Amino acid sequence: QTSMKNMERELVCPVCKEMYKQPLALPCTHNVCHVCASEVLLQHGYLCCDPPSEPSSPAATPTTRSPRLGRRSLAPKPDRLDRLLKSGFGTYPGRKRGTVHPQTVSFPCPACRRDVDLGERGLGSLFRNLTLERVVERYRQTINISAAIMCQFCKPPQLEATKGCTECKSSFCNECFKLYHPWGTQKAQHEPTPPTLTFRPKGLMCPEHKEEVTHYCKTCQRLVCQLCRVRRTHTSHKITPVLSAYQALREKLTKSLAYILSSQDTVQTQIAELEETVKHTEV
């Protein structure tokens, strides 16, 4: 157990304190989640590119595919460099065309506490650490296999749990699940989930990235997940946490309902007067 805990510490992102998701290898040899790195750069005023649709690997780059290619100099010729600079190649927001000095992105590494230079491309110049990602996946599978979850309602000897219920926040074996979810009752509508020891409430999932939504975009008036938040489409939009947006909307609806209820007597009086006027007009 001690060795497993020590291994788990090595698989935890230094920013979110959770296991790595799509880890990126920094030039200082440390790793950080892609979403965490994007959020850190956004906090420091950098514009982040969209997440890559497919994982990139150093083995797939032309420089490392062949030793002969790796020894070649990839620097462009002077005349080609001049043409690229004059044409505005590699421009970014806030930079004028034709300027020679590119903007370099500095990333504060949370592990070594140093500012790491990512170059002009920022996160686009980093490679996804596929080896570390596979290790995290295998570690999770090992934990799930080794840690058997027992039914919480069986009489001794307990049977191994096969189903879980988020509404009941409990794990059941097949017989106990049928017993505590009898047909024809409201509990029979509970959807079974894989057994677990930590039940989290069901949250809305992003249909695009299959991640739980955590923020609300006031400009688009829609819920967004962490990956949606760091995309360029929401760069200048007003984004707030879901809880803050919920409380603001609830206060607005409460005030509207209070105004409607306070005006109800006045409206009923006006309706009665109009009905009397209609009768008088008909007569």
From TrEMBL:
This is TRI46 protein. Residues 201-242 form the B box-type domain. Keywords: Coiled coil, Cytoplasm, Cytoskeleton, Metal-binding, Repeat, Zinc, Zinc-finger. Its main location: cytoplasm. It is found in: Cytoplasm, Cytoskeleton. GO terms for molecular function: zinc ion binding. Residues 53-77 are annotated as: Disordered. GO terms for biological process: anterograde synaptic vesicle transport; axonogenesis; microtubule bundle formation; neuron migration. One of its GO terms (cellular component) is main axon. Residues 13-49 form the RING-type domain. It comes from Psilopogon haemacephalus. Residues 56-67 have a biased composition (Low complexity). SUPFAM superfamilies: B-box zinc-binding domain, RING/U-box. Coiled coil: none annotated.
